[in-house]
Amino acid sequence: TVYRYFPSTEALLLACAMRSADGFLDQLAAHLRGYTDPAEAVVEGVAFTIEALADDDTIELLFHQRGRGPSITSDTARAFGRALLHRLDVDWEGCGYDEVALDHVAEFGLRSIHSLLLDPGSPPHEGDELREFLSCWLGPALAHPQLKRAAPKPVRRRRAAS
Hints:
Radius of gyration: 19 Å
Shape: globular
Strand content: under 5%
Helix content: 55-70%
Number of helices: 7
Mean pLDDT: 82
């Protein structure tokens, strides 16, 4: 049966969605070619994805399954997001991101896309305004690993023996 290859209905639905998204991911990677700053790359990637998928009936169906559809933060979805991040021109390691941090970036990006597709706002965030909104709130979160690395290390003082 199909469950020999997929452990659950969620995994099967996610695999189908991912397979149908192959062309879109190639288009997204091509669109993001040349972006080397983590925040700029992720902000543009999230904005581009929201704009491209806003009118996609398949995505809307998946997001409105309420507990029956694939989880946006499943292990498979995050692994998929990390794989996409590795396709970008960003030197993640050089910018202070290890695999755990990339997992967090993938999850945060997926959650942002999910939220803004489910409720785009009134009026909806679009174009330059969408990018400004994402830069303001998502951008600083992506700068955190670089800021953390640049911060001076606290000096530990030895306690005097009593």
